Amino acid sequence: MDKESSILQIVGFQNSGKTTLIEKLINKSNQNKLVTATIKHHGHGGTPDGVITSKDSSRHLDAGAIVSSVEGDGVLQLRTNFIDWNLEKTIQLYRYFSADLIIIEGYKQENYPKVVLIRSEFDLQLLDTLSNIKCVISHVPLENHRMKDYHIFHLHDEEQYVEYLMNIVLKKKEGGD
């Protein structure tokens, strides 16, 4: 349980490609012999009993994650009920699985290293409200002066952004920043 896990957050609005990106990162992590776990925030209200939420976490498991969960309205879908599940308690639980990497989908306001997915100009508002952004992956061309210190990738530059993100994860695992 003392193992320190790298943590990477994937955020964006609905249908921006978060689950697909997570699948790619899990596959790349497995190629690097890293044990990967995922945490998904069910941000649409209510408990995560529906087919949609279990479909995403199933995709994470099918891609090779050792454990996956969906949290919403006090229910953590490992079929564990607890009134006050929050991200920190879930991360502590995941440390028991000895994961090298924990990928978090959602929880936009938490302060872990983030990847922000932009599918339209409207989504740019996320950049004004989120912290600890490591890179932006966009479906649309972005004006560079708007991007400040972010690494910017177009959605089609998959090899480049997956490699960039894995370097962040591996650097953390080796004791870097």
UniProtKB/TrEMBL annotation:
Signal peptide: none annotated. It holds the Pfam family MobB. Gene3D superfamilies: P-loop containing nucleotide triphosphate hydrolases (3.40.50.300). SUPFAM superfamilies: P-loop containing nucleoside triphosphate hydrolases. Residues 7-137 form the Molybdopterin-guanine dinucleotide biosynthesis protein B (MobB) domain. GO terms for biological process: Mo-molybdopterin cofactor biosynthetic process. GO terms for molecular function: GTP binding. NCBIfam families: mobB. This is Molybdopterin-guanine dinucleotide biosynthesis protein MobB. It comes from Gottfriedia solisilvae. The lineage of its organism: Bacteria, Bacillati, Bacillota, Bacilli, Bacillales. The gene is mobB.
